[in-house]
Amino acid sequence: MISEPARPGAMRYVLFDVDGTLIDAVDNQRLVWRTWAAGYGLDPVEVYRVALRTRPMETFAQVAPDRDPRECLAALHELEDEDVRSGTYTAFDGASELLSALEPGTWALVTSNYEHRVRGRFARTGLPVPKVVVDAAAAAEGKPSPVPYLQVAAQLGAQPENCLVIEDASSGVQSGLRAGMTVWGVNAPTAVDGVHRHFDSLRGAVRDILAFASGPHPYRPDGAATVE
C-alpha cells in the first residue's frame, strides 16, 4: 500500500466498481463462464481462471484461438443477459445504506460490465443508480488502464485528486492509482497491492467512505496507509 493524495476543502467524489464491490456476482460469473466453456468443449476451470484476469476478447484469444471471437462474444452476452433476468443476486451488506446516503452527483459507477446489466442487477437488489455510469462500451480502454476512472471524473467535473475509488480487484486498483486517485480496497481477506486503505468488507468501510465524501480526509496527517 502507498500514501494517498489529499486536497482538503475541495468537493469530494466516490467512484465505485460494481461486481465484487457493491454486488456479489462471483457465483453468477462462474456459472456463466462454465456454461460458455461447456458450449465450446473447453475446461471450465481454466477458462474461468483466464477470464478473471482478462477482458472477454482477450480470454477468447487465449482459450479458443481457433474460434470466431465475435461468435464467442455473442454467446457470452446471451448467457450474461439471461443471468441478469433469472440469476440470483445479492448486494453486499452496507451497499444500500451507503449509496442512499451519498449526495446525487457526487458518486458514480465504473464497471467492466455493460450498463444495462448493471441497471438490471441494481433493480433486483434495490440499489439506486447514479446519473453517471462508465461501462465497457463507454471506455476506450478497460481496467487497469486509467482511462475509465479519468473518464468518469471528467463527466462529474471532478479533479482526480478529489476522487475516492472503491475496488475489490487488482486491475481496478491499478486503474484508480494510475488515474491519480485515492483507492480503498474492500471485500477481500488481504489488501490488494497499492491500496491506500483496506477493509475486509464493504460494511466496514461505510462510515469512512461517507466521511471522505462529506469533509476533510479522516486519516492521520502523515498519510500512512492502513489496513482494517
What does this structure look like?
The structure is a single chain. The longest helix is centred in the middle third of the chain and has 18 residues, at 69-86. This protein is globular. It contains 9 helices and 9 strands. The protein is α/β, with parallel strands linked by helices and 228 residues long. The chain has helices at residues 26-39, 44-51, 56-63, 69-86, 95-101, 115-125, 147-156, 170-178, 206-214, and strands spanning 13-16, 23-24, 90-91, 107-110, 133-134, 163-167, 182-185, 197-198, 226-227. The strands form 2 sheets. The chain has a 7-stranded parallel sheet. Strands 2-3 form a two-stranded antiparallel sheet. Helix 1 (26-39) packs across helix 2 (44-51) and helix 1 packs across helix 4.
Instruction: Give the mean pLDDT.
Output: 90
H-E string: EEHHHHEHEHEHEHEEHE
* DSSP strand content: 5-15%
Output the strand order for the largest sheet.
5-4-1-6-7-8-9
Main beta-sheet strand count, sense and barrel state: 7 strands, parallel
Number of helices: 9
Helix percent band:
40-55%
Structural class call reads: alpha/beta
Globally, the shape reads globular
Distance between the termini: 13 Å
SS elements, strand count: 9
| pLDDT < 50 runs, ≥5 residues | 218-225
Radius of gyration: 18 Å
